[in-house]
Design brief:
Elements: H1 3-23, H2 32-45, H3 51-60, H4 62-72, H5 83-97, E1 103-108, H6 114-125, E2 132-138, H7 141-149, E3 151-153, H8 157-166, E4 177-180, E5 183-186, H9 188-191, E6 194-198, E7 210-215, H10 224-235, E8 238-246, E9 261-263, E10 270-273
Parallel strand pairs: 1-2, 1-7, 2-6, 7-8
Antiparallel strand pairs: 3-5, 4-5, 8-10, 9-10
Helix pairs in contact: 1-3, 3-4, 5-6
The structure holds S-adenosylmethionine.
């Protein structure tokens, strides 16, 4: 490795260490290329010249850190993202889960909540919302606040209605929100059984007895070791036979926990926890 590259690596490692020690957010096991790209991005947006200068700023300016945090925890999301996935949840997963008296769902890395409200709508349409509880967690307080508010730009509703229909939705999507000026305010009846909470997949522990865990488009930003940690966390958070859902570019297959899960729906990253007998 030439010395510029090595110095670069050291500087990046130091800044991640500094963030961890100062603010408790641990990005050290996130996929390096993506984290570095985001740090460089932030550097070019600020008036700072080097990563070391940025480190000093980060340690002394919480607002600067908050802005960087938004960039580091990519929060892109949408309602009924990947409609065939939600169709499979509707037609296959929920028809299994509805046999149970109570359904516990965990959305880990829920971002601003579009995915949670999508699931709440499915549970409602399946007639099981009243006997369900959704835990919605993320490590980023700002997006979690948006999720709690359940207010989304009205201009997005057109696309979301298309997604909803493709996901098998038959009702009128507009019945699930009230339009006010530029916003769509999600119906309170969808929020009733959602518990919002700050939870960090890197540092926090298990959530008990889940029937369905959705962690989509989160693990893609983690390295293999961190992915394994999270799969272990999920394995230990399941009710027997629980379902695990990942994003389209994510898989359990290469993990050291691959034996604990089987892919149960072709073409979808929907797995089931294998219970050893
Ligand atoms: C790209 S969004 C995915 C949102 C949604 N699951 C979806 O697929 O549309 C990734 C989310 O993971 C969250 N995240 C990143 N690192 C996390 C961690 N260590 N623990 C919990 N959430 C995390 C980010 O804050 C962000 O909201």
């Amino acid at each position: 490795m030439d010395s510029t590259n090595e110095n670069d690596r050291i500087e990046f490692d130091l800044i991640l260490q500094a963030i961890y020690q100062k603010y408790g957010y641990d990005f050290r096991d996130y996929a390096k290329a993506s984290i570095r790209r985001r740090l460089r991005n932030q550097l070019s947006k600020s008036n700072l010249k080097t990563i070391s200068e940025m480190q000093h700023k980060l340690l002394n300016d919480k607002n600067f850190f908050d802005r960087l945090l938004l960039d580091l925890t990519i929060n892109v999301t949408e309602m009924f993202r990947d409609p065939p996935f939600f169709k499979a949840i509707r037609e296959i997963v929920l028809s299994e889960l509805k046999k149970q008296p109570f359904i516990k769902v965990w959305h880990a890395g829920c971002s601003s909540g579009e995915e949670i409200y999508s699931t709440a709508i499915l549970l409602k349409e399946y007639g099981v919302y009243e006997s369900s509880l959704i835990y919605a967690t993320d490590t980023n307080e700002l997006v979690l606040d948006k999720a709690k508010a359940g207010i989304f730009p009205i201009e997005k509703m057109k696309d979301y209605t298309v997604n909803y229909r493709k996901a098998g939705g038959l009702a009128s999507f507009a019945d699930y929100y009230t339009a006010r000026y530029d916003n769509a305010i999600m119906d309170n009846s969808l929020k009733k059984n959602i518990v919002f909470s700050n939870h960090n997949l890197v540092t926090d522990s298990v959530f008990g007895e889940m029937d369905l865990i959705m962690c989509r488009n989160v693990l893609i930003y983690f390295n293999r070791e961190l992915q394994d940690r999270v799969f272990r966390l999920f394995r230990d958070s399941f009710h027997p036979d629980g379902f695990l859902c990942l994003g389209s570019k994510e898989t359990v297959r290469f993990s050291s926990l691959s034996e604990d899960f089987e892919n149960v729906i072709e073409n979808e990253k929907i797995y089931r926890r294998i219970v050893s007998h």
